[in-house]
Amino acid sequence: MQFDFSEDQRLLQSTVRDFLAGECGPDVVRSLWESETGRSRALWSQLAEVGLVGALVAESHEGMGLAEVDFVLLCEEVGRAGLAEPVIETAAVAAPLLTELGDAELSARWLKPLARGEAIVAVGHPVDAFVGDAHVADLLLIGLGDELHALGPSEVALEPQPTNDPARRIQRVTFSPGDTSRVAGGGRARTLLAAALDRGALAAAAQLIGVADRLIELAVAYAKQREQFGVPIGSFQAVKHQLADAKVKLEYARPLVYRAAWSVAHGLAQRGVHVSMAKLAAGEAAARASRTALQVHGAIGYTWEQDLHIWMRRAGSLAAVWGSPRFHRERMAEFALADGAPLGAGRSFR
Amino acid sequence: MDLNYTPEQEAFRKEARAWLEANVPKEKLPSFDTKEGFEAHREWEKKLHAGGFAMVPWPVEYGGRGANLLEWLIFEEEYYRAGAPGRVNQNGIFLLGPTIMEVGTPEQKARFLPKMASSEEVWAQGWSEPNAGSDMAAIQATAVRDGDHYICNGQKTWASRGSYADWLFGMFRTDPESERHRGLTFILVPLDAKGVTVRPIDQLDGEAGFAEVFLDDVRVPVENQLGETNKGWSVAMATAGFERGLMLRSPARFQETARRLIALYRENQQGADPALRDVVVRCWADAEAYALETYRTVSRLLGGAKIGPEASLNKIFWSELDLRMHETALQILEERAELLPEAPAARGVGSWLDGYLFALSGPIYAGTNEIQRNIIAERILGLPRA
Asked: Cβ(A169)–Cβ(A135) under 8 Å?
């Protein structure tokens, strides 16, 4: 029993953090808001170069061959940077989904380009109505009832759904399901889709941790520098205590996310409920951090120019996708209120 | 990261479970805040000690089991699962003991730890004074050096277990010129010494859980000084770190409360307020989060880290969770919430109301949550002091 990350895992995290801080600052995020697709192939290639995109792809397909336990820290960094690129869809969900599909032709066709950053794969899961980044996808993996379909861009119709997060690009995807597009059905498709959902929700939860962390960091920096009544506002207890509470929320969502990463990586039977606990707590931590960060900033935080809203918007959008809070609460209730549920002391890991 | 127990850890769990099943008293002991209950709990501690389970993570030579903190966590899980009695010597074994282990001399370890592990000596804490509560650096009690003794004077208050305990730990001002947290020394005082007067205080629950302790020219040998002269503050911070950050409230306690809360909800589900379902489930998830974070803390400590200001995050989280669980139980019970178990209509009302009143004290003891928030803001987030 050892619940901590290794030095190597932390090193990789800090490498990605430094890279994103250098290359993907708020100016880069904002510049993409203005573009038609909201995405930049050049940026995506850079993300692939640091290993973010192919993290979960096997080394034999030019990926990093990492597990969710490693990747979860990188997802946190994506959240911290406020990047809306399809890291969840392509890197966290599609890569392992393609691998698990075990279709030699699909794997050969897509895994290498995916890891190299040359192909974007969007994933539509029945739990959510819309598909992120379908408009720039080279391949779409769409769950429909008990079936999983693989489609090219020309085989789908997209209806863009404008969101209040200008970095998020989501679409309603429609298509005519057929034998040629169907890559799995029945129990097998259900298993694949369940794993996809857990991976997507885990990656979103990890990003929410990064979002919350960044929001608290921004608020703390502002509270140290902004003076009123002749002193920094961060010296007032009314300000301190709000930030302390946001920090408590964050630090107790974190272990749930890390445990969920372990459970997903090892395919534990309880991984679904572990992911739901993580997603719900991380969403609430980000919401609290968001509200607190704005309150600490005051009016300046409520301006377009201030960067705060990059993360405030993301806190909302990530909490809503890969299973709404209601979906995850239902899953938790189903588990904890069942006859013979493993409750009480000593059951967390057994 | 490896979230599996080793076969040795599983074997230890089994052994602890079997021992507890065979030895935990079938009848609930009277409260340790009564004279009779105090001695009954001391007897239980002696039994635990004889069984080798009194202090799992301590070296054998000091009356422990020679295991590590992970095994301690496992033991705590089994202990709460078994519904075993509260630890009457918690001020000693969970707060002072680990501090002596860290800063004590070899002589102090040999003198104090074995008798603490066996509860031959039960400890009270002497953190507060009438004018030093949250502002602990305002301590006025003094200790003046006289040869190889200190002459201690002053008053300690809210001394948990003080009514019946054998010893008290606390800070005394040893440099009369000093101010605030400088010039304090951490001293261990026998409560049977000449000049000590203990006045029990009835708590809200009607029991003498804490006491005032008056010291009038009490002579204490200098070897009872823990840590350096005038550096008592850092010793106290280490003690408070163990208290808030790890040992006082191990997660098993709250996981068991959450389990009972879910059972209560299910028993009363018929016609219950549907909004309570998610609150109950969330309490369970929070108790799990607390357990997971404690495993992370223990993993870090075993990797050589020390408990720091993050102990304050912990203290806020568990005290608020405990309160929320009890509040929720009272909502589930509706009009039965105020009934005592012997009321004819009580129907499994349990002791949730008493538990609720005690949970209300959680945000106060071990350092108020307001002070914890200041510590988080200043020492973790780096905000300026007022």
From this structure: yes
CA angle A187-A190-A195, nearest 5°?
A: 130
Domain-embedded: residue A2: no
What is the tally of structural domains in chain A? 2
Q: Is the ipTM of this complex over 0.95?
A: yes
CB contact (8 A) between residue B385 and residue A235:
yes
When the pLDDT of each residue in chain B is averaged and rounded to a whole number, the result is 95
Provide the shortest C-alpha distance from residue B352 to chain A (in Å).
17
Residue A5 contacts B where some CB pair is shorter than 8 Å: yes
Which residues neighbour B159 within 8 Å (Cβ) at sequence distance 6 or greater?
A: B124, B125, B126, B128, B165, B168, B210, B211, B212, B213
Tell me, yes or no, whether A46 and A171 share the same domain.
yes
Band of pLDDT at residue B348, cut at 50, 70 and 90:
confident
Domains of chain B and CATH, by start? 7-88 (1.10.540.10), 123-229 (2.40.110.10), 249-380 (1.20.140.10)
Q: Kindly state whether B285 is in contact with chain A, defined as any CB-CB distance less than 8 angstroms.
A: yes
Q: Return d(Cα A202, Cα A196) in angstroms, integer.
A: 10
- Geometric angle at alpha carbon A32, from A31 and A36, rounded to 5°: 125
Does B6 contact chain A (CB < 8 Å)?
yes
Q: Answer yes or no: do A161 and A201 share one domain.
A: no
Q: Does B368 touch chain A (CB under 8 A)?
A: no
A232 and A109 within one domain: no
Nearest-CA distance A80 → chain B (Å): 17
**Domain match, A150 and A117 both:** yes
Query: Which strand (E) or helix (H) includes residue B217?
Result: strand B210-221
Same domain, yes or no, for A95 and A158?
yes
Which of A296, A106, A291, A289 is closest to A184 using CA atoms?
A106
Segment 107-126 of chain B within 8 Å of chain A by CB: none
Nearest to A346 by CA among B17, B323, B343, B297: B17
Query: Mean pLDDT over residues B317-334, rounded?
Result: 97
> Would you report the helix, strand and coil content of chain B in percent, each value rounded to 5?
50, 15, 35
pTM, entire model: 0.97
B372 — contact with chain A (CB < 8 Å)? Answer: yes
Q: Is A345 inside any structural domain?
A: no
Residue B128 is classified by DSSP as B
Range of the domain at A241: 188-336
Residues A32 and A159 in one domain: yes
Please tell me the distance from the alpha carbon of residue B236 to that of residue B310, in angstroms, as a whole number: 16
d(CA B72, CA B75): 5
* Cα Rg of chain B (Å, integer): 21
Phi, psi (degrees; rounded to nearest 5) at B160: -60, 135
Catalytic residue, from B43, B121, B243, B370: name it: B243
With the C-alpha atoms ordered A18, A20, A26, A28, is the resulting torsion angle positive or negative?
Answer: positive
* Separation CA A322–CA B295 (nearest Å): 28
Best mutation target, B293, B302, B316, to test chain A (most A CBs within 10 A): B293
CATH number at residue A145: 1.10.540.10
User: Looking at A132, A156, A185, which one is the last position of a domain?
Assistant: A185
- Model confidence over A156-207: pLDDT tens digits? 999 999 999 999 999 999 999 999 999 999 999 999 999 999 999 999 999 9
Check whether residue A72 and residue A193 sit in a common domain.
Answer: no
